[in-house]
Amino acid sequence: MLDLYGVNTIVKEYGGCRNVLFIWLRSGKSNRPYAELIENYDPQDPYAESAIDELFTADEANALKDYLDQHHGGEGSTTITKADLPIPNNVVGLDCIGVGGGNDFYSLYKEPEYSLPFMIEGYFNLVGCELIDEPGETFRHYIFLAMVDKDGCVADFRKETQAEVRLREAEEAARRERDQAGAA
After folding, report:
1. What is the largest distance, in Å, between two alpha-carbon atoms of the chain?
2. What is the DSSP letter of 14?
3. Using an 8 Å Cβ cutoff, are 77 and 10 in contact?
4. What distance in Å separates the CA atoms of residue 95 and residue 174, rounded to the nearest whole number?
5. How many Cα atoms occupy the beta-carbon half-sphere of 132 within 13 Å?
6. C-alpha–C-alpha distance, residues 53 and 140, integer Å
7. What is the per-residue pLDDT for 59?
8. Most confident region among 7-11, 95-99, 129-133 by mean pLDDT
9. For residue 171, how far is the Cα from the chain centroid?
10. Coil, helix or strand for 147?
11. pLDDT digit string, tens, across residues 4-48
């Protein structure tokens, strides 16, 4: 069976947070023996294939780690781990999930000095990470707020600040407590 690997980096500071996990993934379709790498493989179900496509061969993983160490070595620590294969057929790749509100993809392949022969993106999620400027506080999932003008039309959008998120969460918790007390 083909050996495949995952590559992760813990970045010391990113997006106003400390110790952010980046899960690196190959972007695009590969030509791998899916029937060997996915339990109960169903060729009509592309989702498990996407999880396999995101993994790296040993040479690719080492080349990516070398690139990251050379160009971003001071920013964090990168590790390579062997994937447990075959994977279950109910696993999906990270490229199948929606992003926003704190999680997103970083397109490493768009960096000017990028030289690897395959496209790499990094998935990260800031939610739960410690905020640099607010010790003891963690990044929370934000929503976008719509500003409405006097005619009721949307005039602008902006994302909540982390202080606004904490206030909204506190108000929602208080409302739930009142509702539970009223239902008792």
Report:
1. 65
2. E
3. yes
4. 36
5. 11
6. 30
7. 97
8. 7-11
9. 28
10. strand
11. 999 999 999 999 999 999 999 999 888 899 999 999 999 998 899
Q: What percent of the chain has pLDDT over 70?
A: 100
Band (146; pLDDT cuts 50, 70, 90): confident
DSSP state of 138: B
Rounded CA Rg of the chain: 21
In whole angstroms, what is the distance from residue 71 CA to residue 13 CA? 15
| Beta strand ranges found along the chain (DSSP E) | 5-14, 17-26, 76-82, 103-107, 120-125, 144-148, 154-159
Q: How do the domains of the chain map onto residue ranges?
A: 5-125, 144-183
CA distances from 7 to 33, 78, 83, 84, 98 (A): 21, 7, 10, 13, 21
Neighbours of 183 (CB within 10 A): 6
What is the C-alpha to C-alpha distance for residues 100 and 77, in angstroms, rounded to an integer?
25
Amino acid identity of residue 49, one-letter, is: E
Residue with the two structure tokens 């690719």: 60
Burial class (CB in 10 A: 0-12, 13-18, 19+), 78: buried
Q: What is the mean pLDDT of residues 70-77?
A: 94
